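User: We ran a pulldown and think these components assemble together. Before we commit to crystallization trials, I'd like a predicted model of the whole complex to look at. Sequences follow.
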Amino acid sequence: MLRAGVDLGGTKIQVAVVDAEGTVIGQCRIATPQDHGPPGVIDAMVQSVRDAMSDAKADMGSLLGVGVGAPGQIDHDAGTVSHAGNLPDWLNTVAVAGPMRTALGVPVELANDVQVGVMAESQLGAGRPYSSILGVFCGTGVGGGIVINDDLWLGRGAAGEVGHMVVEPDGAPCPCGRRGCLEAYAGRAAMEAEARRRVEHGKKTRLFDIMEKKERTRLSSAVWAKALDKGDHMAEDLINRAVWALGLACASAINLLDVEAVVIGGGLGCRLGAPFAGRIRDAMLPHLILQEKAPEVLSAALGDLGGATGAALRVEPTVPPPGEIGVIVDRND
Amino acid sequence: MLRAGVDLGGTKIQVAVVDAEGTVIGQCRIATPQDHGPPGVIDAMVQSVRDAMSDAKADMGSLLGVGVGAPGQIDHDAGTVSHAGNLPDWLNTVAVAGPMRTALGVPVELANDVQVGVMAESQLGAGRPYSSILGVFCGTGVGGGIVINDDLWLGRGAAGEVGHMVVEPDGAPCPCGRRGCLEAYAGRAAMEAEARRRVEHGKKTRLFDIMEKKERTRLSSAVWAKALDKGDHMAEDLINRAVWALGLACASAINLLDVEAVVIGGGLGCRLGAPFAGRIRDAMLPHLILQEKAPEVLSAALGDLGGATGAALRVEPTVPPPGEIGVIVDRND
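Assistant: Here's a predicted model for the assembly, 666 residues in total across the polymer chains.
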């Protein structure tokens, strides 16, 4: 039996279909529809699951269930996603699991997008040799997840917010409204805001020229990588600042948790790769209470597919009793 | 069957004898001998266990085992304590479990002093209603422990070093040799060093007068409490600074771990009690990502006996097979 995972992001919907071993045997990637609100996004996710099953050359009848990794606040039991500011018209609470289950005829599990990505790295990626890891995912924001005894530690539901560990009291402004959080230095949104402030103050950079050449409206991870390649001083300085903050926060987290490894992922983390992880390790070392037992700092191994793969792993690999599925629709439509 | 716990500190040895329910039924407290090195300390622990059993009106034959909570680095399997700078002549590795087992004829379990204290608070004290807590113990230094699913999370052996989370980059000097750690603001040793620096710079305080009147050579928790009672400005300022740092570090830890409660213990934490815990909660709130789900911040409930009680709980409440005990001595000597 197959499981499908959906990584729901503000710019793209990525689906992976995995077999019993967690190997990806089919996938689909489309732009997140911006014009039809939450119903348009849900329809697109349903169609993408079907397309990924086609890509896997599998019949819909062999689909055991779908996991969805989503941003915002997840209510797993209610099957809803709330306050997902990066998704179109998604500031309120939207029922996601119910409509998808109705359309696909299989159970749908919701989970936090970063946490499924961390779990995928733990089970199948860079964290595989370890039973305890800290995942730090740098994208638009900075999210994270803690794996302890091979299991995600969720706390009261919100554990893993490494992006809002305070690295500098009264420091840089964070998109969360506070100051000095890790995300204020290492999240793309905050880094772009700082770059724009510096340009307003007359500082020079090629970041925005590169952005325009790539026909983007935001400083994407590819824009940052390109600017670094070209030796842009502002880009270098802002990445140095991100590395400094990541090193501090990771050191505090390791002194507290003493996990075996830190996995650096997310769009920016994956794009900058192993050298970035290595620099974070160097920045972390001076603040570790046990420097001789420094944990590994690794770049995420599953890349863009990690979120969708991790979402698929949320589906229990057992056949659910038929009564648990609210509506059985024609799976061959 | 009874279990004994020893809280081994630089100034005192506290022993508790507990019954099957963990209720303390006998105790003994003596000053840590300073003049005969590790052998003198081990002899004193052995005699204190005997005295506490007498206090419990119990025969030594009913003693199931002894737990020892010690500072420094613990090697549980080897039964050794290393680098315990607060203990006399204890900078190297000292065998503790073996000699005590030989003298007492029962198994001896070693553990970290703060962690047994946190576990006692979790099982029998302020943390009892919760399955996940963060313990923050402010004494000479700042130690801690994480309880997850009712069990101590040890990481690779060194988890819980909340005192070395960084609260201010390049901040105040910490006894660990780094800068800006929580302990640099909220540990008594660092607070005293800062008070002495301020006095050298001509600042006034009654802290050292109070210390001399109490015939102490260090600013003990009682000295700090007395100075606060008398409205000493420097004491107030340094305690405010400790509260600020504890609030920041606890907020970062909660954003990461999302445990149900924070328990503030240790000599200084217990002495300043619930009002201190309440102030730490207020200082923590502005930095929490989910302010509406702020965890409880509680003062440790077991006080001075927490460490010894927690050490006793380290002994498995089952009769060990006789072969596991290396040497059986006359228990009635």
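The first helix of chain B runs from residue 37 to 55. That may be worth checking against your pulldown data before setting up trials.

User: Thanks, that helps.
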